[in-house]
Every structure is written in C-alpha cells, then in structure tokens.
Design a protein that fits this description.
Layout lengths: L10 H24 L7 H28 L11 H31 L7 E2 L3 E2 L10 H36 L15
Antiparallel strand pairs: 1-2
Helix pairs in contact: 1-2, 2-3, 3-4
C-alpha cells in the first residue's frame, strides 16, 4: 500500500513558492534595468540584484531541503505520460536553475577584475566564491551562462503558469488551488 500524500501544499511550501517566484521576477526586471545605459542608478541596481540573488539562492536551497523532506501532493489522475514527465522536468529544472543561476552570478562577480567590494544589502561583505580567480574571460563566460540561465527560468515560468492555468480552466482539477492560500478546493 502506498503512503498517503497530502492533498495540498503546506504553508511553508506555499510561502517559499510565492516568495521565490516574486524575487526571481524582480531579479529579471533588475537584470534588464541594470544593463540599460540610460538607467542612472545602474550601480545601485547591480548591488540590489546581487543581494536578492543570494537571498534566492539561500531560500531555494531551503526549499529543496523542505521539498525532499515533505511529500508533495500527487499529480492528478488522468494526466498523460508526457504531461507527467513535463511536470517533473519543469520542477527539476526550476530547482537546478534557482540554485545554479545565483551561483553563476556569484561566480561571475567573483571573477570580475573590477575593484568593487560585494556586499549584501550594503551591510554584509560577500566573499568571492572559493576557487574562482579574477579573469575577464571567465567573467564573460559566466555572464553568458548567467543570462542563459535567466532566460531558461523565463521559459520554465511560462510553461509552469501555462500548465497551472490549463489545469484550472481546461482540466478543471485542483492543481492550481493547492498552491494558492485560502482558496476553496474543487
């Protein structure tokens, strides 16, 4: 007999989900703004981007640990095998990118040859990532990988939101409701 699974995500899982989602969307907006020549506060935006990127990294590691130690609701019956595979791939991809993209960003600033001290929220010194040496070539490669990772997060985000809306409006199941707080289940 299979162990029982919850029929909704717990409060911690929902809080982590929505907090990390909001932070990632903000980081993508910061990432766009800080690369615009017309933006007068570019340096400050870079600093906030780095600070919130580390917050996403820490929250994502905590979220992964939480997910590995707390059973998620089962996928709805009747999903096609490709839908189940896509759901699993999307979630694994999100975890890999939520941890990998901030690490790439941290490695990129660690490889920078600019004499800028990295600080989280202008308060906490952020040391260079161990094992990363200052190099313009390495910084350029890491920047490219960081940007590709951010674009992949956007692709997964669109797929994830599209799938949630498909479940809600087409399949008419409770997949979306179990991640929303205080919504009555169907």
């Amino acid at each position: 007999m299979a162990p029982a699974t919850p029929n909704t995500y717990n409060r911690v899982a929902r809080l982590l989900h929505w907090t990390i989602a909001a932070l990632i969307l903000s980081l993508i907006a910061f990432g766009f703004l800080m690369t615009q020549e017309w933006m007068p506060q570019r340096f400050e935006i870079y600093q906030w981007h780095k600070s919130f990127g580390i917050v996403v990294l820490l929250l994502s590691v905590f979220r992964l640990i939480w997910r590995l130690t707390h059973k998620a609701p089962a996928l709805p019956d009747g999903m096609k095998p490709w839908e189940t595979a896509a759901a699993k791939f999307t979630h694994i991809g999100f975890y890999a990118l939520m941890i990998g993209v901030p690490l790439l960003g941290w490695a990129m600033v660690s490889a920078s040859t600019l004499p800028i001290e990295n600080q989280l929220f202008y308060l906490i010194p952020l040391p260079d990532l161990p094992g990363v040496s200052a190099s313009k070539a390495a910084e350029a490669r890491l920047k490219t990988l960081h940007e590709i990772g951010a674009k992949l997060i956007l692709v997964l985000f669109v797929l994830h939101v599209g799938a949630a809306l498909k479940h809600h409006f087409v399949a008419r199941d409770d997949v979306l409701q179990r991640m929303l707080p205080r919504v009555k289940r169907r």
